Amino acid sequence: MSLKINKFRDERGVLIPFEFSSLPFVPQRVFLVKDVPVDTTRGNHAHFTTHQFIICLSGSIEVGIIDCNGEKTFLLRSGDSTYIPNLTWDWQKFISIGGEILVLASTKYDPADYITSLEEFKNIINL
To answer: What is the arrangement of strands in the sheet containing 29-33, beginning at the earlier edge strand?
Structure first.
């Protein structure tokens, strides 16, 4: 799911404000993923309850999702973002040098919230 984020560009550069009130949840945790080798995939899991908002800070990141509507992939470039609801399997493939993402999560870290088996996930959502 994509959320429209305004970008303001002038001779001084680009300003991209992220208002928490525009998100479908109030973030409880923020983390940065960086220094990932090119062609390395991160994620490969789903969450029972956690929603995430992924912001590409630099580079190009291929994002894949699987949910009850099927599977799709798309590209995030610097300044792009996407919303990942709970019960959505997702992965991020870092396809350029210097790729970085900032992730806003709706919950605090809880290992019990993770679904790490794709087969189990597909059973849970009846795929």
So the answer is: 29-33, 100-105, 52-58, 81-84
